[in-house]
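Dig into what follows:
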Amino acid sequence: MNRAFKQFLLFLPLFAMIGCATRQTVDMRRQERAAAYANLAPEFKSLVDQGQIKVGMPMDAVYIAWGKPSNAIQGESPQGRMTTWLYYGTTFEEYRYWGYRSMDYYRPYYGGSPTIERDFVPRQYVRAEVVFENGVVRSWRQMPRPPP
C-alpha cells in the first residue's frame, strides 16, 4: 500500500466525525446565544439551522451558523462602522524531494538508489469572508480551495 492511501485510511474516521461535529456545534452555539436566536426572524432562523447565512443577518446569526471567525478586521466607511470576519480553511500542498532508499529492508545501508519522495504540508487559506456594516451582513463570499 502506498503512503498516501495509508494516510487516507488513517484520517477517514476523523472526516466522518467532523460531519457530525458540525451539526453539534450549530446546536451548541444556538444554546450559547439562545436570546439572540429567539429574536431572529423566522427566515433567518431557518437559514441558521442549516448553517447558511444571508445579507441582512445580524452578527449573532452568522456566529451561530458558521462559528467564531478565524480573524476579525475593523474598519469604517461613509455608511458607518465595518467589520470583516475571515474564516480560514486548511489544504495540503504536495512537497517533493529526493530520498534514498535501501534495496535491502532487512539490512539497511546508505547509498541506495535515489527516489522521488512526497510529503504533504498543511497550508491555510481564506475560505470565507463576511463583511458587516453597522452590525448586519452587507456582503459575504466563499473562496474555492487553492489548486494543488
